[in-house]
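Data availability (excerpt). The following record was deposited with the supplementary files.
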Amino acid sequence: MFIALGFAAALAAGAPPAAAQAQPAGQTFAFAAYLIRGYHNLQQNLLAAAEKMPDADYSFRPTPQVRPFGQLVSHVALAQFGSCAALKGEADPKKDVKEDAPRSKAEQIELLKASTAYCDPVLESLTDQALTETFKSGQNTVARGLVLTGTNSHGNEMYGTMAVYLRLKGIVPPTTEKEMAAKSKEHAKI
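Predicted structure:
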């Protein structure tokens, strides 16, 4: 036992102090930049989910009481148009577009891409300071950052619902697919 303790002590004495060992470089996460990064990841996930669902299944709804998959895509896109138009101080360019209007998969994807393109400039311009600045939206006064956080939370809710629809059709959702690919790479390194 004394030999084992002596060996362990010798190993510890020969090892460099923890502070001297190479530590990964830290990152700085500014609030606005972090929210914008989340927004971009969300937009990628929404688009990937919309692309993964076959065209024939855009009318799929798990129960009669819920929206069909295609309507989820248009719902999130039209919500983004409305929120970003308010933030821009403009009239909603899609205010007369109905989310339940019949559209093909290609049209739904185009609507989603258009909403992202419309939102990107105004959301990407938000800084930590700008997040707390207010603007008038109808009769309300709203902090600018609430549009970004609201877009993220609503979009994540819709993505989660879309992921369930994909699973019910036997399709692996995009985020799960990415996670599985990352784990596969890690196991390949071992």
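Summary of structural features: The domain at 30-171 is CATH 1.20.120.450 (Four Helix Bundle (Hemerythrin (Met), subunit A)).
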